[in-house]
Amino acid sequence: MICIVVAGLSYYFNNSYASSGNDNEKTNQVIKKKQKIIKTNLTNYLNSVTKDGTASVSFYNLGAVEGSSSADDKEAKLYQKGSLEVESNAKAVNISASTYKLYIAAFLMNQKLQGAFSWTDENEDGFERMIVNSDNDFSEQQIVNYGASALSNFTQSQGWYPNVFQDGQATQTTSYSLQLLLEDLASGSGAFQNKSDQKKILKWMGEQNYRTGIPTGAAAADAGTTVQDKVGFLDDVNNDAGIVTLPNGQRYILVIMTHGHNQSDFSGFPRIAKIAKNVQEIVYGADAGKQLNNY
Question: Domains of the chain (ranges plus CATH)?
Answer without folding.
Answer: 24-284 (3.40.710.10)
